[in-house]
Design a protein that fits this description.
Length: about 350
């Protein structure tokens, strides 16, 4: 049994990964400021795990002293780093805040690891580091040219990690993906953002009587005119983080991996799929294109399949929507809801 510290482990992808780590037999320390995460998610995982297997330390990666203290006291064998600000539009409006959280905060984590001799680091990055794609699916050799501050801050850390490894011996795995989606198949965990900006939960809200969904353009060069995007089931992403950690534990070299879900699906396909699982139409309107929205964004997963033995087993659109619908139906107010 290893001790693993997970920054941002009360968030969406982080909590699903914490659950997977606990199931693997690890002791997990979740370090989270709860600005976007939920203590209830950690409590649910801890309730189903052996005593003291999962615990929450409330703190901010912006607080260098608190981060160092948490890592020093936990004495983890590895750190999985999810804590970040991650809204693209917000990053354009508030770049200073994004650099402060995503760059300075991450360097606090790496500094604390170096001081405590923690030498394995799994970094939850983003396929937004690639910017406008030259070709799809996007593989790891594609040029990285971010078009927003969010992507730039993640790329800044990616570029720093080889230097940190040479100086401090911290080996790393970088995992890049576009859209996490779906919910824990057991119904324990799910997606709960405020504000919510992701297509699938917004489509589900619209089907359940919420505001109509806005489709940003239907005249793209795609089969049905709407943008095509890459969705990976959140539990598949958790599996990928564990596979990357296992590779580092086995002595594997530092590397970066793109985590694609497959061929990608269109906005129209998502709307039609939600209508099928909901048994009712998804009210929506066609709006203008958003600046900078490429027609198709899909990531390759060939390297992850070959080197991590990772396969996105739950990432069909049907599986994603079924688990997402069950979560949102049972938790209309997210973790504040009482499960039905």
């Amino acid at each position: 049994m290893s001790v693993v510290l997970v920054t941002g482990g009360a968030g969406y992808v982080g909590s699903h990964t914490v659950k997977a780590l606990a199931a693997r037999g690890d002791e997990v320390v979740v370090y989270d400021n709860l600005s976007g995460g939920h203590a209830e998610a950690v409590e649910r995982i801890a309730a189903g795990a052996p005593p003291a297997r999962v615990r929450l330390v409330e703190g901010d990666i912006a607080d260098a002293g608190a981060v160092a203290r948490a890592i020093r006291e936990a004495r983890p064998a590895a750190v999985l780093h999810f804590a970040a600000r991650l809204l693209v539009g917000e990053s354009v409006r508030e770049p200073i805040g994004y650099y402060h959280a995503n760059v300075t905060g991450t360097m606090h984590v790496l500094s604390a690891m170096a001081e405590s001799g923690v030498l394995r680091f799994v970094f939850s990055s983003t396929a937004a580091t690639f910017g406008e794609p030259d070709a799809v699916p996007i593989d790891e050799t594609h040029p990285q040219r971010p078009i927003n501050a969010y992507g730039e801050t993640k790329l800044a850390i990616e570029r720093a990690l080889p230097h940190v490894e040479r100086a401090a011996g911290i080996r790393f795995a970088i995992l890049r993906y576009f859209n996490a989606a779906g919910a824990d198949p057991d119904g324990l965990l799910g997606e709960d953002h405020e504000p919510e900006e992701h297509l699938i939960p917004l489509a589900i809200r619209a089907a359940n009587g919420g505001p109509p969904l806005t489709v940003f353009g239907d005249d793209y060069d795609t089969p049905d005119g709407t943008c095509v995007r890459d969705y990976v089931h959140v539990s598949d992403l958790a599996d990928a983080h564990l596979a990357a950690l296992a590779r580092l534990e086995a002595g594997g070299a530092s590397a970066a991996y793109n985590l694609g879900g497959g061929d990608g699906v269109s906005v129209r396909q998502v709307i039609d799929g939600v209508a099928r699982v909901a048994g009712r139409e998804v009210p929506h309107r066609i709006g203008a294109r958003r600046a900078g929205d490429p027609a198709r964004l899909v990531a390759s997963n060939a390297r992850a399949r070959a080197e991590l033995d990772w396969t996105p087993r739950r990432s069909s659109l049907a599986a994603i929507l079924e688990t997402a619908w069950r979560w949102h139906h049972a938790h209309p107010r997210g973790y504040r809801s009482t499960p039905r």
